[in-house]
């Protein structure tokens, strides 16, 4: 569990904050969703960086700096606490926030992979209640609405957290990193290998790393080149192919919903049904009936 390696978790548990959910990501990064109501938090700090996005209630939270207080004017705000920063807070109403925990190592590796630059000596800015449309959208939708424990959502989590790190480096660090320009798509032979791999493993969890490994590219460059070649981000392409297979099995076989869900890589029949309806507008049962009428 990430609680063994990240110091923020046990310190938050000493407050009135309630841990709603958490998950460890690849390479030791982690996500945690917290809620709180009325609290006074004194001198909390951690040995890692914390990107905190208020899902709602930011206006009910105050940061104390000596005799000064810093407040948010909106419900959704972004805070960035670099490692070892000591902060104190007052909470005067319901809040819900999502924390993304990462280290200097994660930032350094990303700088080297994405910009091909020396990733050492990264210094993040201290941010209080910023308005950031991209991070708010990422955290409130992709990260906030994903099922963190479902292997099917790991691709979306990989993509969203990578985007969040790149955005943080470009906008909230002392490094002056250039805007990333579109690159060419995957060569046809590489795309063919990746597509074949996906088709043969639709019933299994698929990660950005395993697909990128087929091409020898970093996760970031693979995702950009794959989208350039197909028009889909990897996680959306995989979901699309799972649903295409499900439609075939619904129309052409008598398999029950649980078996179809498993063959298409969904964790349960209910998860399959929810995703199918969200993408097609009808339930799997309704789709089967339509195809056979």
UniProtKB/TrEMBL annotation:
Domain of life, per lineage: Bacteria
Q: Name one GO molecular function term.
A: DNA-binding transcription factor activity
* Occurrences of domain HTH araC/xylS-type (ranges): 192-290
Alphabetized InterPro entries for the sequence: AraC_XylS_family_regulators (IPR050204), Homeodomain-like_sf (IPR009057), HTH_AraC (IPR018060), HTH_AraC-typ_CS (IPR018062), Tscrpt_reg_AraC-type_HTH (IPR020449)
Q: Cross-referenced PROSITE patterns, in alphabetical order?
A: HTH_ARAC_FAMILY_1 (PS00041), HTH_ARAC_FAMILY_2 (PS01124)
Keywords, ordered alphabetically? DNA-binding, Transcription, Transcription regulation
**The protein's name:** AraC family transcriptional regulator
Source species? Vreelandella venusta
């Amino acid at each position: 569990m990430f609680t063994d390696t990240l110091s923020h978790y046990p310190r938050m548990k000493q407050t009135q904050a309630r841990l709603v959910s958490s998950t460890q990501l690849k390479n030791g990064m982690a996500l945690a969703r917290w809620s709180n109501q009325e609290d006074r938090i004194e001198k909390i700090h951690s040995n890692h960086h914390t990107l905190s996005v208020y899902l709602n209630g930011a206006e009910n939270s105050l940061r104390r700096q000596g005799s000064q207080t810093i407040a948010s004017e909106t419900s959704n705000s972004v805070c960035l606490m670099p490692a070892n920063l000591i902060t104190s807070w007052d909470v005067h109403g319901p809040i819900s926030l999502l924390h993304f925990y990462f280290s200097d190592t994660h930032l350094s590796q990303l700088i080297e992979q994405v910009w091909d630059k020396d990733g050492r000596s990264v210094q993040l800015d201290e941010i209080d209640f910023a308005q950031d449309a991209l991070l708010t959208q990422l955290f409130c939708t992709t990260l906030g609405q994903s099922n963190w424990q479902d292997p099917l959502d790991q691709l979306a989590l990989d993509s969203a957290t990578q985007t969040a790190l790149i955005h943080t480096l470009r906008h909230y660090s002392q490094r002056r990193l250039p805007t990333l320009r579109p690159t060419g798509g995957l060569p046809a032979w590489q795309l063919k290998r990746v597509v074949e791999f996906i088709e043969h493993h639709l019933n299994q969890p698929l990660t950005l790393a395993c697909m990128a490994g087929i091409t020898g590219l970093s996760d970031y460059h693979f995702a950009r080149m794959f989208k350039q070649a197909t028009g889909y981000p990897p996680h959306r392409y995989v979901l699309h192919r799972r649903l295409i297979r499900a439609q075939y099995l619904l129309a052409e076989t008598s398999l029950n919903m649980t078996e179809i869900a498993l063959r298409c890589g969904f964790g349960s029949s209910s998860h399959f049904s929810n995703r199918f309806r969200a993408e097609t507008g009808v339930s799997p049962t309704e789709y089967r009936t339509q195809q056979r009428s």
